[in-house]
Amino acid sequence: MTGYRRNFIAGGSFFFMVNLADRRLQLLTESIDALRTAFRETQRHHPFTIDAIVVLPDHLHTVRPRRGVW
Fold it and tell me: Domain range for residue 30?
């Protein structure tokens, strides 16, 4: 990733975005139950918190506080 910087500030947050390889597909909203299950199972095995998430048909955005375990 070019230009990637980490700025570790107490109380800071992380933002990440995930895109489908084929942006013409709408898998994230068509399979929202599977996505919820995947997040729930991952969180069960690797506890984390997410302050906000936006799920769009071809990508998602999340904001996660720095506290907690990823």
Answer: 13-65
Whether this model's pTM surpasses 0.90? no
- Judge whether 3 lies within some domain: no
* Total tally of structural domains belonging to the chain: 1
Beta partners for residue 52, in sequence order: 63
Give the pLDDT score at 67. 59
CA distance 67 to 56: 26
19-47: string of b/e by CB count within 10 Å (b at 16+)?
A: eeeeeeeeebeeeeeebeeeeeeeeeeee
- The tens digit of pLDDT for each residue in 13-30 reads 778 899 999 999 999 999
Q: What is the mean pLDDT of residues 50-70?
A: 82
Judge whether 54 lies within some domain: yes
